């Protein structure tokens, strides 16, 4: 298949607004796809010569063709708990989230939500995501089964939590270990699936469960590790009170040997320089979740301090604390969060971050996040005039940078014209029926 359009892909992190060496842009471009992989990307005139005469052409002009978007932190069982009103983190978890996640004890429910979750990601142009499942092993089966049915490269794992949560959501250190072991054996590396060892956060894991997590990480260096860190002041006070021997919140995880370059730490808002430097030294990734940090009233992620101290960071929706599956809307909020702190996020840096930047955070830059020869053919087609107000605004746009910025600031799933997973078009055609009023 030959995918034709205005192709944009990155080769490096843009260092400034006009660092044109960081990206490749082909005004009349094409991506040649065969067997789920990118054969080559470039000018249509050159790439079409590589294709056989009988190649199927998908002509998306004048839309933009980019690598599929990547979301590095969200919660699959919170799909139906987005927009839960009025509480900050700990109250929100207890009032809404720990109630919602109990529904995933039922395999049929987990399977239904997993299907909808994957479709929602794809509608928003996200082809790879890293998600927490619920404490129930069945929820992980539902998650990877739904991903496999669509051919998606998805990362995830069973959340481990053995205290400060309702009975029905608690495992034990041994059970968390045994179930995680079995799920890794079943799913990690099966098709495109990759496993993330997932102790929820210090508050919901006893020292015994942290030790079990340490063992799992030591036994499975091929897997990711994910948790939450320094999101909210009450959370930090509670977490550090539970681990009095730790120097600070970050040190809780460091003491259990969890910090490594395959670790993703959600939020990282109130870290000291010492803590960010500890992340930098270990190669662990701080995950910026702008819509969630605003929605839960958590705080502002300080990207410049991460950059200055040499720590890695990525971006994510954090659905259901996050309010949208859209990475465009997420970067819109990221821009505003940084702006409030006098920091800039250029349009090219933003699109880099949703694609190659997040792929690098996952160590998957050979496979996803760009359209180089040999990459997986996960591709999104973006219509930068997907809403009427955008179309009117776009008439005055004078550069690609300006177009990208408008797309990010005003765009959402209505701007996703098509999405390809391993070369296959996946965008659900037609609108869903709207439910009649229930109230
Ligand atoms: N900290 C521990 N669990 C969660 C969660 O589900 N969402 C968010 N935003 N923070 C958390
Ligand atoms: Fe989260």
From TrEMBL:
Which family is this sequence assigned to?
Belongs to the metallo-dependent hydrolases superfamily. ATZ/TRZ family.
**The gene coding this protein:** guaD
Keyword annotations from UniProtKB, A to Z: Hydrolase, Metal-binding, Zinc
- Keyword DNA-binding assigned: no
Query: What reaction(s) does this enzyme catalyze?
Result: guanine + H2O + H(+) = xanthine + NH4(+)
Cofactor: how bound: Binds 1 zinc ion per subunit.
Q: Which GO terms describe its molecular function?
A: guanine deaminase activity
Q: What is this protein called?
A: Guanine deaminase
Q: What does this protein do?
A: Catalyzes the hydrolytic deamination of guanine, producing xanthine and ammonia.
Q: Does this entry carry the keyword Coiled coil?
A: no
List, alphabetically, the Pfam families matched.
Amidohydro_1
Listed pathway(s): Purine metabolism; guanine degradation; xanthine from guanine: step 1/1
